[in-house]
Amino acid sequence: MAIPTFDQFIEPLLRCLAQHQAGVSASEAGEEVATNAGVTEGERQQLLPSGIQAIYKNRIGWAHDRLKRAGLSSCPQRGLWQITS
Q1: Three-class SS string for the chain?
Q2: pLDDT score recorded for residue 26
């Protein structure tokens, strides 16, 4: 199975944020979403061409960016993601 695209992470991320109404750390949300989306340990080790960031974390970050742009989530402080009303 290939690592899901950023748009395939949007729904699992939204569900995660809905379960953590008070907010959740970006790293905790990323791990929860990756687990729920079935990202394997091998896939979690795959890095972007820069070699700095894991592909799945990058894609989950882009999913959160899209949710923020749609007004469905916010980032009340650095590293904390929260669903909006």
Answers
A1: CCCCCHHHHHHHHHHHHHHCCCCEEHHHHHHHHHHHCCCCHHHHCCECCCCCCEHHHHHHHHHHHHHHHCCCEEEEECCEEEECC
A2: 97
